[in-house]
Amino acid sequence: MDWSQAELAQRIAWHGHDGSHPMEAPAIDLISKWEHGVKAPSRPYRVALARIAKGRKLTEELAPIFLAADSAWHVVSRIEMLHEN
User: Fold this and answer.
1) What is the span of the domain harbouring residue 56?
2) What is the pLDDT of residues 10-57, one digit of tens each?
3) Looking at residue 9, what is its pLDDT?
4) Is residue 60, in this structure, part of any structural domain at all?
């Protein structure tokens, strides 16, 4: 979306609210770890990312991926680790 990591963090905080309280924005270094495949976003952040993706025509197909079960995220990360070795 051509956003800076800081802007993405703000948007995640906005879209991650539970109706009464905004979500804490993720740290910039955490977003960098997501981008480089070092860490996967936690479930609340993935829900916020799904909301962002769903609202954008260019990224709406990403919403179901962000909403995948935690176990699926762990499996993918393990496969990627094996593939790197």
Assistant:
1) 8-14+27-84
2) 999 988 876 667 789 999 999 999 888 888 898 899 999 999 998 888
3) 95
4) yes
- 64: in domain: yes
Evaluate whether residue 79 is within a structural domain.
yes
Condensed to tens digits (0 to 9), the pLDDT of residues 64-76 reads: 888 888 777 767 6
How many C-beta atoms lie closer than 10 Å to residue 8's C-beta?
20
- Please say if the pLDDT value at position 82 is more than 90: no
Contact present, 16 and 23 (Cβ < 8 Å): yes
Position 33 in a domain: yes
Q: How many domains does the chain have?
A: 1
Pick the closest to residue 48 from 36, 79, 30 (CA basis): 30
Phi and psi torsions of 14, nearest 5°: -65, -45
Calculate ∠ Cα 57-62-65, nearest 5°. Answer: 160
40 DSSP assignment: P
